[in-house]
Specification:
Structural class of chain A: alpha/beta
Helix content of chain A: 40-55%
Strand content of chain A: 15-25%
Largest interface: A-C, 50 and 50 residues
Strand order of the largest sheet of chain A: 3-2-1-4-5-10-11
Shape of chain A: elongated
GO cellular component, one term (chains A, B, C, D): 6-phosphofructokinase complex
Number of strands of chain A: 11
Largest sheet of chain A: 7 strands, mixed
Radius of gyration of chain A: 22 Å
Subunit structure (chains A, B, C, D): Homotetramer.
Keywords (chains A, B, C, D): Allosteric enzyme, ATP-binding, Cytoplasm, Glycolysis, Kinase, Magnesium, Metal-binding, Nucleotide-binding, Transferase
CATH topology of the largest domain in chain A: Rossmann fold
Catalytic activity (chains A, B, C, D): beta-D-fructose 6-phosphate + ATP = beta-D-fructose 1,6-bisphosphate + ADP + H(+)
Distance between the termini of chain A: 59 Å
Order of helices and strands of chain A: EHEHEHEHEHEHEHEHEHEEHH
Enzyme class (chains A, B, C, D): transferase
CATH class of the largest domain in chain A: Alpha Beta
Oligomer: homotetramer
């Protein structure tokens, strides 16, 4: 087993609340084990551009409560080329880094897997994305916070919807994953939910709403995942509109505010546990894997496995429950 | 002076956080003065449809902290006709109501003024709208809460913007009034603000952003009022986009969540004072006027005057300050 | 198997955010299965006082986002007597209730177990308490919300602590359970945590703080669980005070605000799942058990078992992690 | 008129949310006028200890949304001595500072007044304290945020109080000033409020509560200002307790969380305006004065005047309104 003296840490891809807590845990766990730590700005881009710096315990003071990532993040085209990665490796080695912790999503994991194989450098991944669409873990960092942000927005919209007898279509994030939509739909008390994983025909939706309208609901809210097959909240609203003259129809696209905000307690603790586990796994000789949580246990999954399959996160029971609750 | 024995209260037009606190204050102040109170649902529509009910102190328990309006609101076409108003008056008289408190915006005030003149019934208005665009008052109910809602959203967006070196265009409410945009721009630390009251050319905006970009800002936020002459955030973003390749450009339209939420402390107190003043003014014989606050004093302005002019709310000093702060 | 036609539902003991979501799920799941529902006010007291009412789908509209419990709660001495329970059963039968869902904590479960045995009535329990100290489940309803409430308070206190170089002792709820304290300590970035399950000597605490002070921390926060053996935050602060003259020492006892607030997304979803499962289990013939969640699966545990042992909830890894993070 | 080339800025006394926005405005307004800026850590202590640093526009990036003060604050005994002030002045002059902006409360103003006279250095004060107890201004920085923090806590406590039929005594900040208590009492819908400015006998309080209890209120909340003559919430609760057996009595002392948190929109804008005005006044030759807001106008008041009298902030109308609303 290779001896590790310096760990590099970076965030890559879309940011998610709680990434800072993970960074902090990586830094402090490494220092606690007498390892040195290098922070890399802007993900893979920062390896190529050599924007790195030595991190101490103080470097991560008072960041646990902050949204975003203090190490910044980026999507990096150059790293997809062999030349880009070679340059990155050169800088990584020059900095004395002999193991990496990568925090991010699918793209981040893919980059990490290739880089680790090509240059035989130990790497451990931490799943950070609000979409909760990564394999090898029940939960990703940022998902819980995003759910809370979304329901706070829905609660606010419900206030005005109920005052006006309005029908709202609220679009939430999730291009391929309906996790946020489903959670927000249940927690926000939505009358219907459109998920990327399900083909809900507009006619079916109209029937559900008609059923709700029959019971004189003072307001109706439909949650539409970004990746819904019908083309998003605006399109759905247009097609539904004429059927519900009694209700004034409005659309709200929540957008990027779902990405920010102080991380929830659960995300801070999850991220801390994951950062701690990532360093410990590296020090035990584990590599090319992702940290995950299953129930309340920390686990690791080889990146190859995590990247090859598509784990279904959508809980079918919840889909059923959502319908019954809308009655 | 006519003796008042029963006060009718309703909310009309767009809802605003704090309206419930105003309703509560109207009810309890009237009861305290040994008057009876009738609540009217759905504004003027409810007068026509005769959806009214007797209110006691308990009717307004635990509503001060709730967004929206428990009396519901609506926009009513029928009330614009003489027949509609005649029917409304018939119901109002039948219910024994001999004075009205109307909570809402411009349209509400116009209806109240006509109704009061036509049927010689005392009426007092309370300014409730998040836009802060009514005459006769420094502040309207809901404006402070909306400002807080908007900056919470901006703070969240700033987290993700800063993590990605992004340029965000955030559209906030305000069709004719730039009050929210200006406040949010200053409080959110925006790099530029586009107001309906100002003609900001796209070229001028680009120059401001170029100036900010020169100083290596990690993120830039432009606040665009709904009523901006350039056609809203999407249009502005499209036109600015090509000039700022270094920054990833995103648009966020905050939408109706700005209307909801638990009212802020300031809005609850303002609404309580206005509800209290409205009833007291009616009991003193004042009529056909709107309640307002000037500095820390409660004032009244005749509706005729309040509706005839356009009071400029935009503070020019703040426009200047916003520019300097963005440096 | 006994045929169930009417389900009674009540909350008992300390309230917890998310109880309303559980009530809503019980009501709608029962109605969906063509059962009738009776709501019982004030827990066991309401059975004795016969304060019950028929619940429809509308009865639980717009309550999912509300803290507390719309069915109210109480601690009931009379129910501990055979006469009290006999009277309760008489009323329950007279109301046509042939199965019960009880939402609450240990005391609630004990009452349910006895009542169900004595009168052979099916009963299913749902764990609701912010303390997360019940057997048969990984998580109780309200715990996640309380954690978020606590870290929001800690974040605020950190602002002022850091501005003043202050040492704060923050007391959080948890008479027997350190779950909130441990979570809050990690998520709030505390320098030390005192748990009821651990005997932390004052000297040991002082050593930890001295170590932190050596690294010139601008502020220090110690989380003290209510049930800490040293006698609570005030006592601990007094004993520590003289050693840290450089730091101004303050105490904050968070108190009952930890019990309230809109439930988090996770608590709303958990409570909804538990309410749904409780009714389904009753309809399947299960009785005298508590609903729980293990990982992402819903489970049931016989009340006898849940009440006989003491499941340790405190995660020892987290205790270790908390120490390393404070470095 | 003396030419100013470098402005020193510091915060002193108790911290308040919005101080960072004021610092930011001072720095950017000064830079905009081609002045240099020195930040002084820990208030007057930092002048003596010479902990100062050059501030650029970047120094105040992304601080507008943060609670506390990035310049830290302290209470400084040494500055009360002539030697201390002489040492402070020496350092101030050595740093090239020829004008000062002091952000804080009464103690800060007193120090500024003496220092400015002794050493003939221009100084402008900005009122920052959550207590709203300073002369020369309608509002101080931090007061609005604290009011919002307090009502969020009260709303949470109301949830649990209402679920249990409880009587809560909530102690809020305000040693001499009842501003927070009065606002929070009205906005939180309290049944009674105890203010330092009023002598409310316990008997009178009991009578008010008895009156409320007669109307079967499901919960009662009494707001007690820290400086209430009866000795604080714990003492009041003890004395009231025996009279209200039906209600379970609880005490909650909100404490220092009232000091922190992200500043409200209104506080950010107020602080920005005050920081801007402070620098402009200095540049116009004004000195030894405090910035204030009256209605929507910025004003200045000589420190001598501001410190010599006691302006009554408590709005008597609000005291009356609070009583009527509790009916």
């Amino acid at each position: 087993m290779r001896k590790i003296t310096r760990v590099g840490v970076f965030t890559s891809g879309g940011d998610a609340p709680g990434m800072n807590a993970a960074i902090r845990a990586v830094v402090r766990t490494a220092l606690h084990n007498d390892k040195k730590v290098t922070g890399i700005y802007h993900g893979y881009q920062g390896m190529i551009d050599n924007t790195m710096f030595d991190m101490e315990s103080k470097s991560v003071s008072s960041i646990i409560q902050k949204g975003g990532t203090v190490l910044k993040t980026a999507r990096c085209m150059e790293f997809k080329t062999a030349e880009g990665r070679a340059k990155a490796y050169e800088n990584v080695r020059a900095a004395g880094i002999d193991a990496l912790v990568a925090i991010g999503g699918d793209g981040t994991f893919t980059g990490a897997e290739i880089f680790s194989r090509e240059f035989d450098i130990p790497v451990m991944c931490i799943p950070g994305t609000i979409d909760n669409d990564l394999n090898g873990t029940d939960l990703t960092i940022g998902y819980d916070t995003a759910n809370n942000t979304v329901i706070e927005a829905i609660d606010k919209i419900r206030d005005t919807a109920a005052s006006h007898n309005r029908l709202f279509f609220i679009e939430v994030m999730g291009r391929d994953s309906g996790c946020i939509a489903l959670n927000a739909g249940i927690a926000g008390g939505a009358e219907a939910i459109l998920l990327p994983e399900k083909d809900t025909a507009i006619d079916e939706l109209i029937e559900m709403l008609a059923h709700a309208a029959d019971r004189n609901k003072s307001s109706m809210i439909v949650i539409v995942a970004e990746g819904d097959k019908n083309g998003g909240a605006n399109n759905v609203a247009k097609r539904v509109h004429e059927k519900f003259g009694y209700y004034d129809t409005k659309v709200s696209i929540l957008g990027h505010l779902q990405r920010g905000g102080a991380p929830s307690s659960a995300d801070r603790v999850l991220a801390t546990r994951m950062g701690y586990a990532a360093v410990n796994e590296l020090l035990k000789g584990n590599t090319r894997a992702t940290i995950g949580i299953r129930g309340s246990e920390m686990v690791t999954t080889p990146l190859e496995e995590a990247l090859s399959k598509k784990e279904l996160k959508l809980n079918e029971d919840l889909v059923e429950i959502a319908k019954i609750m809308a009655l």
